[in-house]
Amino acid sequence: MTNARESCIYEVNYATPRSFGTALKSDLKETLFPDDPFHEFKNEPPSKKAKKAIQYFVPIFKWLPKYSLRFFKYDLLAGITIASLAIPQGISYAKLANLPPIIGLYSSFVPPLVYAVFGSSKHLAVGTVAACSLLISSIIGEKVSPVDEPELYLHLVFTATFFTGILQAAMGFLRLGIVVDFLSHSTITGFMGGTATIICLQQLKGMFGLKHFTTKTDVVSVLHSIITHRHEWRWESAVVGIIFLAFLQFTRYVKQKKPKLFWVSAIAPMVVVLTGCLFAYFAHAEKHGIQIVGDLKKGINPLSIQHLNFDPKYIAAPIQAAIITAMVALAEGIAIGRSFAILKNEQVDGNKEMIAFGFMNLVGSFTSCYLTTGPFSKTAVNFNAGCKTAMANVVMAACMLLTLLFLAPMFSYTPLVALSAIIMSAMLGLIEYEKAYRLFKTDKYDFLICMAAFLGVAFISMDVGLMLSVGLAILRALLYVARPATCKLGSIPNSSLYRDIEQYPEANGIPGILVLQLGSPIYFPNCNYIRERILRWVRDEQASRDADQAGSDIEHIFLELGGVTCIDITGVETLIEILKALEAKGIKMALVNPRLEVMEKLIVTKFIDTIGKENVFLSIDDAIEASRFNLKSSK
Question: Which run of H or E residues covers position 518?
Answer without folding.
Answer: strand 513-518
